[in-house]
Amino acid sequence: MVKIFDWDKIETKNRHSGTMKTTCPECSHTRKNKKDPCLYVNFTSGVAKCFHCESLSFRDSESKIDEVKEYTLPSQTWTNYTNLSENLVKWVEDERRIKQFALKDLGITEEKYYQPKKQKEVNNIVFNYFEGDKLVNKKYRTADKCFTQSTGGKPIFYNINSIIGETECYIVEGEFDVLALHSYGIKNVISVPNGANDNDDYWKNSDIYIKDIEKFIIAVDNDTKGNELKERIAQRLGRYRCEFIEWTDKDANGALISGEIENDIKNRKRFPVSGTWQIKDIESDIFDLYHNGLPETIKPKHPTFAKFNEMYSVMRGQLTIGTGIPSHGKSNFTEWYALNLVKDYNMKMSMFTPEHSPMSLHQTTLIQKAIGRNFWSDRGGKPRINEADINRYVRWANERIYTTLPEKGEVPTWDWLLDKFKEQMFAFGVDIFLIDAFNKVLLPRGVNKIDAINEVLTKLTSFAQVNNVVVFLIAHPTKMKKDDAGVYNTPSLYDVSGSADFRNQTHNGFAIHRYFEDENGSGYTKFINLKTKFQFQGNIGAESSFNYDVDNSRYYGHDCPRHDIDLTLEDIGDTIQPNLEFESSAKEIIHQKKIDNGDYDIIEDDDLPF
Ligand SMILES: [Zn+2]
């Protein structure tokens, strides 16, 4: 185990900010070169690490304890049972090729503990989750792959101490992969705590350790779930600072066993974003196109969009501008459209919609769209949304829909907004950003308006590209002229107020135009494809008609059946949330997930490499 020493022992030479290198209070006096500055000190984050003896120090250990108050930390007496049985050490070495020093360095223990699946106390190998000198969580695994963990522990990456002061960080998908890389000689490696299940908590709790890292090497499992996880991690961290390893075997431990580990690590790859590329970097993408055809575009799966999908779609990495005459429904339509993408692709959306404050009032129309009934009263033969519906929406939307508000009611700048979006990408893994509307953000000063708009659109398109996210931007047109019949013309992207660049710079664009009810009561809303970047995304100039349902704020495809679907139903969350309580012989309460066959299971075995 790494040693943790008092911050006061550091020779800070009266420095209080930035970073510095100095001698190590733990090892320097024992070394030949006693003046070697082997200790890295970061005053901003309050951590120090020795690159010779690997000791750590934390300045704010008191405030750290405060911070973890909401969690129930395991008993801190772990040092009492660090002795590992001959059996365990041998098994890990024979079966997993993991060296004993790795078990020691990572503070692996062996303990008797209640395993819910077996309904009794059994012997376990224990992965101790340390944050600094605090034991914040423990995961227990039996020889025959039963898992459980301590109740109420703090969710955090496993082995988080190992990346303090580092510029690079490997991310794997299980504790045994951490041990495998550590055995191989790579020590700056952390593991997601729950297999392929991604959630916000452990990212939030690990933020202070991760934010200074310059490069991430994502080395999760080589299977479907692992690939999804890889994409989600790169999404949060920003592809430009990520590389990835494709294991020849299932995972890092598999590669250690088969001997492919060195080769696999050498052949790490970059994500295609920007910069300078060699053809080799995109070799697999070329083969992917060759074998699987054109890339899949993103389109809502609700049957009411069937006709619409033939003429329009968006893709990740693209800016889409929606326009339309005020009160014709461009915001309403875009929100309904984006909510369907959130549901159908398990995405997360962040909305900057100052035009629709207060926030809670805006949420009522989103709830109507999600549930499919009116928020305020019984309408059209359907009952008003009830409290259970609201609860379900809140549960569904809480980790899917985020709102950005201007600070103190000020009009924010584009740099401020894009910084917020970047934070949200990291903290929550947001994939869709909706800005409503363009004129609610301050244009850069010191240049004329056309240049300023051009600059903002360049930033927005590159934000979408570099981060591989979907950006929707609502923009108002200039005042439109009426035709001979007294009907307003539909705006094009050239009519968007301020600059022709709205047409030239954006990847995609559309207009929403409402034909209000005449005496025959046949009003409808038209969606016009104003631009798609690639031909295979849709037909520029094509139109699709929708009927607006004023009761639930949804748009139903004209002549399409009105499916009463509820976006919040089905596949609620793919994270494993323990939801049953049991009492063990040790009187320790363990949360469990009841699975269909009546067994109890904490973590999907397939997600874990042991
Ligand atoms: Zn040292």
Structure description:
This protein has three domains: 1-59, no CATH class; 64-275, 3-Layer(aba) Sandwich (Dna Topoisomerase Vi A Subunit, Chain: A, domain 2); 315-557, Rossmann fold (3-Layer(aba) Sandwich), CATH 3.40.50. Helix 4 (175-184) packs across helix 7. Helices cover 27% and strands 20% of the residues. The chain has 16 helices and 25 strands. It is α/β, with parallel strands linked by helices. The protein starts with 18 loop residues before the first strand and ends in a 9-residue tail after the last strand. It binds zinc ion (ZN).
Rounded to the nearest angstrom, the distance between the terminal CA atoms is 22 Å
| Strand fraction | 15-25%
> What would you give as the CATH superfamily of the largest domain?
P-loop containing nucleotide triphosphate hydrolases
Summarize the main sheet: 9 strands, mixed
- Oligomeric status: single chain
Total tally of structural domains: 3
Gross morphology: elongated
| CATH fold-type name of the largest domain | Rossmann fold
DSSP strand count: 25
* Contiguous runs where pLDDT drops below 50 for at least 5 residues: 572-610
> What is the CA-based Rg, rounded?
28 Å
Known CATH architecture of the largest domain: 3-Layer(aba) Sandwich
Put simply, the count of helices is 16
CATH class of the largest domain: Alpha Beta
Give a list of the ligands: zinc ion
The strand line-up of the biggest sheet is 16-15-17-18-14-19-20-21-22
Task: Return the average pLDDT rounded to an integer.
Answer: 84
Helix content: 25-40%
What is the SS-derived class?
A: alpha/beta
